[in-house]
Amino acid sequence: MLQFDKVSMRYPEVGDVLKNISFSLHPGEMAFLTGHSGAGKSTLFKLIAVMERCSRGEILFAGQNLNKVSNRQIPYVRRNMGLIFQDYKLLQDRTVFDNVALPLVIAGYGHGEISRRVRASLDKVGLLGKEKKYPLLLSGGERQRVGIARAVVNKPSMILADEPTGNLDPELSKEIMHLFEQFQQVGVTVLIASHDISLITRMNYRVLKLDHGQLVAS
Amino acid sequence: MKHSIRNQHRAEGRQTRKSGGYFMDRFIAYRDLHAHALFSSLGRLVASRFATVMTIVVLAIGISLASGFYILVKNLQQLAGNLESSNQVSLFLREEVSDANAKKLAEVIKKNSDVLDVKLISKEQALKEFETYSGFGAAVKALDKNPLPIVIQVLPKNSLEVGFALDSLVEHFKQMPEVDLAQIDTQWVKRLQSIMELARRGVALLSGLLGVGVLFITANTIRLELHNRREEVLIAKLVGATNGFIQRPFLYGGFWLGFFSGVAAWFIVTLTTLILKQPIEKLSGLYDGSFHVVFLGGLETIAMLAISAGLGMLGSWIVVYFQLRQLKPE
Prior knowledge:
The structure holds two protein chains of two kinds. By secondary structure, chain A is α/β, with parallel strands linked by helices. Chain A is built from seven helices and ten strands. Chain B folds into two domains: 33-83 and 191-326, no CATH class; 88-160, Alpha-Beta Plaits. Chain B has a four-stranded antiparallel beta sheet with strand order 2-3-1-4. Mean pLDDT of chain B is 82; it is low at 1-19. Classes of the chains: A alpha/beta, B alpha+beta.
């Protein structure tokens, strides 16, 4: 599903942020990405979401070489990924329904289809009935679940979560992680960046550990 | 590669919609997207009423200046048009010529085979007209005697419209001892026409400049709007929005700005014309009342609205096109 082949990333101002990274994730695999702050977790995510281009090496996603994806094609690549963020990145002036519907609206789905899929997605994360609420009126855990519903509504083949539980207490974090497990069980590849070591060790999944831009454990 | 991904999505869509009519569905979704962008952008303009009104007033003044000058030139052109058919010759008689002699002279001229009609304007008649229309009546009254000459207006036959025949007729009048000055009105028409040509060019240049102004004002307004909605744009990019999708509501925003400015400009121009109509038509009495004020016509109004809306969209497009490519999610 995802393959990194000797990938390096160098920023002119900072120097090498990622050095010679190689790993791969099978379809339907769930893994954690961990490491200290500044180890390169966010940069690695940006490379997968084509927010940045790597300096050296190759990244394959769903059979596509991301180096060769043109700027015009980037949106279509992203439609096959569900991105989840620590700060949720929700539109505050739109309802829960509109937030979750955004990827479908962008992809040009019809009204009925959108309504059906948004409900199904909200049902999966346990927020059915809150469609008309605005994000500001929701708790942190609920907001992150809206973010997850938006990430999966387009049925992506991979979910990328960047510190999804960074702002949540342990109980809520467990719930969110459980949700990711459910998606993994239906065949979605899941990569979660987190530095919550206790949570990661309790869940028995593969761990990719970054240290100063190098992959030290896989 | 892009197509393979698109097809994948289409295939997915097909799986979920077994009933067929898939393309129709997509078409309706596309149309809905446009309709949504059209009305949501309108909604945004209404939501920030104060800023919108300020921008529209500035744009409307620019547009109304251009179309106001246009309508001015059009009115003047009509004036030149009225005069164009006239090849009337005015004979200003010497001061010492008496009314009786003038009358005799008029009779003589009327018998000329090249002359269609003759009109004698006595000193008193001329003074009366001057007092009525010029507003300098009091000043003229202050003079000891009537300074205006007797005028014989000669209307030559139509066959003499231009050229040598007319010139020789005028030359003939000039030789008459009673005639001080013989003037063909068409000379004034020609001068007026070249002034008009100049005015037309001037208006075209001015309109071009004002158009560029409208373009940049809309561009700047849309740039601010884009800046305010930066977060939303970045999120949309992250969930797979193409630049085209993000651009759409801004383009419609530019369209509305331009369109409403055009409507406001129409009101400005029409009101101004209405206000000026009466004094202008009073002034036109000086030209025997043949002049009627022209307003912006239907087609011209449509053209003005189309140009303003088009400039709005273009301004918005330029900004959004270049800024979106720089705006990258962090």
